UniProtKB/TrEMBL annotation:
It comes from the Bacteria. This is DUF427 domain-containing protein. Residues 1-87 form the DUF427 domain. InterPro entries: DUF427, DUF427_sf.
Length: 93
């Protein structure tokens, strides 16, 4: 699977986990040069507290476009510290 934004592959892995129609990529599969930590956090009732990244590619920024759960509930252990995308990031095979 590949995550693409602004015509650039920002993550790539054969090991994604799909939950709620989102592909969660291993943290080591993201191209870290495009990611910067965000101050945004949100809480999912069954997964836990999410942290976010903003993505910057070729001078354009996509604020809070990736999220991950550094610590998860027992129900979501399979996606602990994996990264998922939204806000225009396209995930394709």
């Amino acid at each position: 699977m590949k995550a693409i934004w602004n015509n650039e592959v920002i993550a790539e892995s054969d090991d994604t986990i799909v939950i709620e129609n989102n592909h969660y990529f291993p943290h080591e599969a993201i191209k870290k040069e495009y990611f910067k930590s965000s101050d945004l956090h949100s809480t999912c009732p069954w997964k836990g507290k999410a942290s976010y990244y903003s993505i910057e590619v070729n001078g354009k920024e996509n604020t809070d476009a990736a999220w991950y759960y550094p610590e998860v509930s027992e129900l979501a252990k399979s996606i602990e510290n994996r990264v998922a995308f939204w806000r225009g990031v396209v995930v394709v095979e």
